[in-house]
Design goal:
By secondary structure, the protein is of the alpha/beta class. The chain is 35% helix and 24% strand.
């Protein structure tokens, strides 16, 4: 009998509105189906509904059938036997999901159902075999590490090994590569595809990144506003007669560059041998080795590197959020005051108080001004980022990711910064919302002349906006060149890997 996971007429409702509306589909063993759509479209809600992980306040109707058995009606204890053993799960940020106090070995033993010292020893060879299967070496050393001791790519591989431990028939993967750089993203997706084919698994891959699934998915399902609006084979996805929302997402995922722009020779902010060491008495390895770099007026500096490479530490030094252990951050020659710097964070939800309306969050930036002037400043900032004033009365949870990211940019503009630092500010957004935010940053650079430092693990983002590129690797600045020179002739081995990972299969689109 063919192993199959079928969901029919799934509806998820809250007291206020419908979150998922009559969604139906199927997943057979041996195929990889990608579920794509914009942020907030209902993709993750679908996986939670299938796995029985919806919050208690939400109501589910419809059917979920696994190999002929309805699992949506199972009791909690019985459903626990389905999760992991028959349907595995890969999450977006493994370090947040895995228990930080348990070793990778302990997580795998739990997945294998092995408890007690004697049984643990019997499964040691199996654990090593699984870790090696997903490319983690040396397996014995990795098994003993805690999740936080692994890099992002290693943690995602470890989670795949944990998911495979119980030998499930199906795996639901919810944005498993969104926090990884281009090279690691390609590696993890190819690994997932190879394991899916070797084990004849059925994989449901949730993603907002269409470009990443072109070479691995068998079918694609497009979700919008909690409903399936389009589905087809991957080869048909890029046809011109597809649903308008599909075409919009495809178009936004195509590689693009903005027209070249001559960078001003006027220095705006300088790092002179600035480094940071967090270890006791600076005796351990530094988070950032002494770094010298100059940001010029109106320049967009793209900063790339793997997790732990030192790029965010460098940004914190530029912003004055950390004091350098060595060297200094200085104003340009001929001035004494360091220019105003604002940081736009990766997770806008975390930068606003969830209990307060957004108006209160923006007022905090202009609280010293008279009330009427403060209101005028806020309205001007909203106009610059293209947001309607009525959003000010909403709380953060009532806005989309793109709206909230624009709101965080508006708040940053209220203090009239000369430098904006965008630390992975678009990594959690779908390709359409991401392109809108990047276009906004380009417009602000033209209108206000601000210098931009764009930190990203996605080289497509760097290619789209940057004038120059700084590459960090293992705590060091290893390359700093103009965008054109970097893309045409990267020098450092890590730079070469990043450029090689760029998807050049589609035509490069000029930015607006």
């Amino acid at each position: 009998m063919t192993r199959e996971l079928v969901f029919t007429d799934l509806c998820v409702t809250s007291a206020r509105k419908s979150l998922l509306s009559t969604v139906s589909g199927s997943l057979q063993a041996g195929e990889l189906v990608a579920v794509v759509g914009r942020s907030g479209s209902g993709k993750t809600m679908l996986t939670k509904a299938i796995m029985g992980l919806l919050p208690a306040q939400l109501e589910l109707t419809g059917q979920v059938v696994l190999d002929g058995q309805r699992i949506d009606q199972l009791k909690s204890q019985d459903m626990d036997q389905v999760r992991g053993q028959r349907i595995g799960m890969l999450f977006q940020q493994p370090k947040r999901v895995l228990n930080p106090r348990l070793s990778i070995r302990a997580h795998m033993l739990e997945a294998l159902g092995a408890y007690g010292w004697g049984k643990s020893r019997l499964h040691e060879a199996k654990i090593h075999s699984l870790l090696e299967e997903v490319g983690l070496f040396p397996a014995a050393e990795i098994a003993g590490k805690l999740p936080d001791q692994l890099s992002g790519g290693m943690a995602q591989r470890a989670m795949l090994a944990i998911a495979l431990a119980a030998d499930p028939d199906f795996i639901l993967a919810d944005e498993p590569t969104s926090s990884l750089d281009s090279t690691l993203k390609a590696e993890v997706l190819q690994l997932l595809r190879s394991k899916q084919q070797e084990r004849s698994l059925g994989v449901l891959l949730i993603t907002h990144d269409i470009s990443s699934i072109r070479s691995i998915a068998d079918r694609v399902v497009m979700v919008s506003d909690g409903a399936i609006v389009d589905q087809c084979s991957t080869t048909e996805l890029f046809a011109e007669d597809r649903h308008p929302l599909t075409q919009e997402l495809v178009q936004a995922s195509l590689p693009a560059t903005h027209p070249g722009r001559e960078v001003s020779a006027t220095a705006l902010l300088q790092s002179v041998e600035a480094g940071k060491n967090y270890t006791r008495k600076a005796k351990g390895p530094a988070a950032l080795a002494p770094t010298t770099l100059t940001l010029h007026t109106g320049e967009i500096l793209g900063v790339v590197g793997r997790s732990g490479s030192g790029k965010s530490t460098f940004a914190r030094l530029l912003a004055g959020l950390e004091k350098p252990s060595t060297g200094q951050i200085i104003a340009p020659e001929g001035t004494t005051e360091i220019p105003a710097v604002q940081v736009i964070s990766q997770e806008p939800y975390a930068s606003f108080d969830p209990r307060l309306p957004l108006r209160t969050g923006l007022l905090a930036a202009v609280h010293r001004l008279p009330a009427e002037q403060a209101t005028d400043e806020i309205m001007q900032a909203l106009a610059k980022v293209g947001l309607p004033p009525e959003l000010l009365e909403r709380k953060p949870g009532q806005c989309s990711g793109g709206q909230l990211q624009r709101m965080s940019i508006a708040r940053a503009l209220l203090v009239k910064p000369q430098v904006l630092i965008c630390d992975e500010s678009t990594s959690a957004l779908d390709s359409v919302a991401q392109r809108h935010i990047l276009d906004l940053l380009l417009e602000l650079r033209e209108q206000l002349g601000v210098g931009l430092v764009v930190i990203s693990h996605d080289l497509e983002v760097i290619r789209y906006v940057s004038d120059s590129v700084a590459v960090f690797f293992e705590g060091r600045l290893v390359e700093h060149r103009s965008l054109g020179d970097f893309l045409s002739s990267p020098e450092h081995p890590h730079s070469k890997d990043l450029v090689a990972a760029l998807d050049r299969s589609g035509p490069v689109q000029p930015a607006r």
